[in-house]
Design brief:
Length: 107
């Protein structure tokens, strides 16, 4: 199973979009059985407070970043359960992961 988490900030709309993507593969041959990818949109009314001075970049506090990642991962876990119910992937479980462990990369 591959777990990818992406964030985008849209400052003019005061939103942070968290996009977890979960890819389920067969153990032996890396055959992709399923991919679930969902956009979670968070309205952050005070987002401008996190804008770097004289810049278009934002510095989101680590605790808040971890919280929205956690909410997104927990919610996609439920979506996977519902999506896979009644299929051969019914017993596929997204493991508990530390939402703070995802590396920050700019793109």
């Amino acid at each position: 199973m591959d777990i990818n988490l992406q964030q985008r900030i849209i400052g003019k709309e005061n939103t942070i979009i968290v996009t977890p993507a979960i890819t389920v593969k067969l153990d032996d041959d890396n055959f992709i059985c399923s991919t679930v990818k969902v956009n979670f949109i968070f309205l952050v009314e005070n987002l401008d407070e996190f804008r770097k001075r004289d810049s278009e970049e934002f510095e989101i506090p680590e605790f808040f970043n971890t919280t929205i990642n956690s909410v997104s991962l927990s919610t996609i876990r439920g979506i996977m359960y519902s999506h896979y119910k009644g299929t051969f992937l019914h017993n596929t479980i997204l493991p508990i992961v530390n939402p703070g462990d995802f590396k920050k990369e700019k793109s």
